[in-house]
Amino acid sequence: MKSQIAHKLTALARGVGRGHRALAMASVLAASTLVAAPVQAQATKIGFVSTERILRDSGPAKAAQSKIEAEFKKRDQELQNLANRLRTEAQKFDKDAPVLSETERVKRQRQLADLDSDLQRKRREFQEDFNRRRNEEFSSIVEKADAAIKKIAESQGYDLILQDAVTVSPRIDITDQVMKALGG
Description:
Helices cover 78% and strands 3% of the residues. The chain has a two-stranded parallel ribbon with strand order 1-2.
């Protein structure tokens, strides 16, 4: 609609003499402003949610973190014990190396290498299991947060809610509301 009015006014301006062209252009601008005014009158309500803060500070996130740490505490202690054993064996080897026979030295070097390989493999497995378990726990928190965000958006009339931004005004940050909806 806007373009039809603009085209008609432009055609009118062509037909008018040079003296009236400025008046015709002013009319075109005024008409386009009147057509665009209703669009500008509708303000868009925008909100922001810090997913990082929710996954770090919310009650469910803290509970999940504690649960995972308790679940992996025993394996972490085993890894620390194995690392201490490797360190002790390496120090003992360094101390004894000058007096060891060649075959005994090679044998103990192999044992240290095997122990180190075992430690590295177990650390890798531990980290993979820990990350997988953490992702499982936190994905359910993200799902609950998304549901809370949608509910807040519908109830408070938000048109757009962002989860990542470079800079955010505190007046549009609704993270506290989402954390409250999640239970802390």
